[in-house]
Amino acid sequence: MSFSVGDVSGHGVSAALLMGLIHGAMSNPPWGASEDADRSAVRLNELLLTKSSGERFVSLFWCSYDPMSHVFQYLNAGHLPALRLWREADGAWQQDRLSEGGPVLGLLPAAAYRTTSVAANEGDLLVLFSDGITEAPNRREEQFGDERLIAVAQETRDSPARAICDAILAAVRAFTGDRPAPDDQTLLVVRLWRAQQDSATGR
Length: 203
Hints:
alpha+beta; Phosphatase 2c, domain 1; 5 helices; 25% strand; disordered C terminus
């Protein structure tokens, strides 16, 4: 199964139409199904350069997880690095940021991209977000920032994914004082899962 979060430069109808184009290009066929995600990213970059002539660009984070092999793959095309939390064998939690991949899409004609594979396990936590979350300002024009987001994720890391998502959004609202958000706020929290066993074979 795969997940993605993206952000188009600018606002309005043209940005929405471009995101619709991206969604269609990533869905038919789904990224990672018929070719590696890095080749798909090159194709999408070329498509966006053709359609927008370099006037708009897109940041994108794509990832997929195979619970049978415990392999997690991702490609970060100029997007904010996703947060990954995982538990060591001794029970201690660790964290890292997923930044490998390449530049934003639709800006550089000769851009190259790379898919990265990471060993993962049931219970690992992924937090994907847009800059509308981390750049949300309070009344003093201070930004919510990565550190606050990571702190909330760490504090709630044993909770269900939905509860972690709600906790982060609540922290953003408390920080901003419910001021209107100046930018779109996208947040996706995923808890990696165990592979379903075949009841007949026991596999």
